Amino acid sequence: MDVRITFLGAAGTVTGSTYLVSYGNTRILVDCGIFQGERSWRERNWLPPHFDPASIQAVLLTHAHVDHIGMLPRYYKLGLRAPVLASPGTADLAKLLLLDSGRLQEEESAFRAKHKKSRHHPPLPLYTEEEAKAALELLTPGPINTRIPVVDGVTAQWSLMGHILGACAITLWIGGKKIVFSGDVGRYGEPILVDPQPVELGDLLLIESTYGNRLHNGSALQDEMADIINRTYRRRGVVIIPSFAVGRTQTLLYYLRELKAAERIPDIPVIIDSPMASDATAIYRHHSNEYDERSKELLRKGAHPFTVSKMYFTREKEESMKLNSIEEPMILISASGMLSGGRILHHLKHRVSDKRNTVMFVGYQPPGSRGDWLKRGNKTMRLLGDEVPVNAEVCEVSGLSAHADRAELLRWCRSCSGTPGRVAVVHGEPDSARQFSALLGEELGWNSFVPEYLDTITL
Ligand SMILES: [Zn+2]
């Protein structure tokens, strides 16, 4: 009997990570991500799945980003009732992110209903917040670095990868074969979380390749941040940072604490105006066992890696609106990071016309997005129904990424023991995946290939 692996996502793209592993009657899903981005990919979320969700005996999650877990409520609706195994950090973040995903799906279908932009009448959400809540009942947190039983004859182990809190590689032992799923690989020497941990390789390695053909700009990130904050302060302006709630916000707080401690920036208020970022920060605080040595040392000294002086979390909508009346210099962190929705929109509408202020991007803005529009230097912007002049400074701090670059991916591969029988290079745009696959052959002599969407291989 063969072990079969089918690539149901993250093949030819970076989203929709889903792998079906089968052996005899055993069926296991590793990740169940939602497709994002282009419409042709997003439409796949609505297709009948390529397996019967009721036949799945276990789901294993690498980490809590929705492109790795976002289909869980949909599969639940279609009959999935298996345990969903994840690290404790992933389980906590998954609750936050899936409920939010359900809310967004409902908002989007309501928007489509209003603007008659749907083929369905009435437009339906992929799933609701209530359905997400029901699916979360399946979540079963398990220990890290311990080989645990999954179903009869199948075991698995989670190893930390430093990509976001709880993010792990998964080693799966099934049908006499050993398969390693890298999940998303984090970066080396980043604050807060441990570096990607080495694992023992086996018959097959699935490795991500988001930055498989690129190197991150290793520039002095904190210098850039300090320059931007100081010149905005001199203008008596506000620094507005559109940020991702999970991971990015906590890293920003870490750097702001360091800059303040070194007196490199003034001790101005730091407002986190995003309930999700506040909740994610609380979850990050709770899982300090995943911190690196620097952050653990701070805890031992009674400090906290992301407690900044004059830091305030605003939760209620009224508090968020009240921020508009503050005229003093401050740093305002809000979501969403890509300006696709959320409170950041009213902050921009209120402040982007004032040339004293700065919009500081800290993450990727996809082509065609609002963030991209601003970065291109457009002089007006449509925000919450109005055309608003753009006079604020718009800039970007580069190098903040949760993904290993080409050199770091290679470094992780080298740190692992053993030579994999085969390597499937996944989770990358086609060029990135192909080039990284070639690099693995040249540098390590590994037998690698780039699978296509819906390919099946046997071991
Ligand atoms: Zn991720």
Q: What distinguishing features does this structure have?
A:
single chain; 459 residues; alpha/beta; Metallo-beta-lactamase, Chain A; Rossmann fold; 2 domains; seven-stranded mixed β-sheet; 31% helix; binds zinc ion
- Give me the side-by-side strand order of the main sheet: 6-5-4-3-2-1-22
What Rg, in angstroms, do the CA atoms define?
A: 22 Å
Portion of residues in helices? 25-40%
In this structure, how is the largest beta sheet organized?
Answer: 7 strands, mixed
> What is the overall silhouette?
globular
CATH class of the largest domain: Alpha Beta
Overall description:
By secondary structure, the chain is α/β, with parallel strands linked by helices. The protein folds into two domains: 3-214 and 402-458, 4-Layer Sandwich (Metallo-beta-lactamase, Chain A); 221-396, Rossmann fold, CATH 3.40.50.10890. It is built from 14 helices and 22 strands. The strands form four sheets. A seven-stranded mixed beta sheet has the order 6-5-4-3-2-1-22. A seven-stranded mixed beta sheet has the order 7-8-9-10-11-20-21, with helices on one face. Strands 14-13-15-12-16-19 form a six-stranded parallel beta sheet, with helices on both faces. Strand 20, helix 14 and strand 21 (448-449) form a beta-alpha-beta unit. It is globular and about 70 Å long. The relative contact order is 0.14. Bound molecules: zinc ion. The site of zinc ion has 4 residues, from loops.
